């Protein structure tokens, strides 16, 4: 996979923090930015997945699903009653 060079403009104070972190981690400033973007993208993907899951489970059961659930409960009661 190739790399692409890019230029960004950031506040000087943020640049200094990135520079200090890069020195502390013994990596390049570019690597710090890559790590930050990778983390941001992963968090965003996780948030999107959670939103999709919540959407999938947010709907109310259909009439058919409610009927099936009722039938399963009745059958379970019968099985349990016969065991006791």
Architecture overview:
The protein is mostly helical. It has a domain at 12-59. The protein is 76% helix and 0% strand. The protein has 3 helices and no strands. The protein has helices at residues 12-25, 29-57, 63-83. Helix 1 (12-25) crosses helix 2. The longest helix has 29 residues, at 29-57. The N and C termini lie far apart (65 Å).
Rg computed from alpha carbons, rounded to a whole number of angstroms: 27 Å
Tell me the strand percentage band: under 5%
Helical content stands at: over 70%
Tell me the total number of β-strands. Answer: 0
Oligomer: single chain
Poorly predicted segments: none
Span between N and C termini? 65 Å
Largest sheet: none
Secondary-structure content class:
mainly alpha
Average pLDDT over all residues: 93
Name the shape in a single word: rod-shaped
Provide the succession of SSEs. Answer: HHH
Annotation field: number of helices: 3
Question: What descriptive keywords fit this protein?
Answer:
84 residues; mainly alpha; 3 helices
Secondary structure blueprint with pairings:
Blueprint: H1 12-25, H2 29-57, H3 63-83
Nutshell version of this structure?
The chain has about 80 residues and is mostly helical. The protein has helices spanning about 10-25, 30-55, 65-84.
